[in-house]
């Protein structure tokens, strides 16, 4: 039994390090992301709030309905762009329904800032998005900007 537990521990450690060993250690984009976000805000004459984690957000419309928590299931209409304005993902106006347990950290933290009917922007540094590695069409280290409209919060 002791050997089985030791083997499982080694396998777990190997599996958790496999991406890093294949691609090298992650790059810290925090300083560059912060600079890029502040430059974007200045260039677009926007004022945003910043959380302790580095998430920037702008609430254009507060909404007056239910406020989700970090594990709520919500329906959200969104458009995701890079700093340069290029769209990388977009929902329909009807939005998508998803559990906040299954999204990037920036959404898990940012969506609960809105109430149903609310809208605004989330400016997500890479450490709250997809990190320093490429993910599908998103290059590693990318700042993600999401236009958000919170349509519904499902009852738990």
Q: Any idea what the CATH architecture is? A: Roll
C-alpha Rg (nearest Å): 18 Å
Q: Poorly predicted ranges (pLDDT <50, ≥5 residues)? A: 1-19
**Count of helix runs:** 3
The CATH class? Alpha Beta
What's the story with the biggest beta sheet?
Answer: 7 strands, antiparallel
CATH topology: Chitinase A, domain 3
Overview of the structural elements:
The chain is of the alpha+beta class. It has one domain: Chitinase A, domain 3 (Roll). It is built from 3 helices and 7 strands. Strands 1, 2, 3, 4, 5, 6 and 7 form a 7-stranded antiparallel beta sheet that branches. The chain starts with a helix and ends with a strand. The N terminus is likely disordered.
SSE inventory with pairings:
Elements lengths: L1 H22 L6 H14 L5 E2 L5 E6 L11 E9 L5 E4 L5 E4 L5 H6 L8 E6 L19 E10 L3
Antiparallel strand pairs: 1-2, 2-6, 3-4, 3-5, 3-7, 6-7
Brief sketch in words of this structure:
By secondary structure, this protein is an alpha+beta fold. The protein has helices at residues 2-23, 30-43, 105-110, and strands spanning 49-50, 56-61, 73-81, 87-90, 96-99, 119-124, 144-153. The protein has a single domain (26-153), classed as Roll (Chitinase A, domain 3), CATH 3.10.50.40.
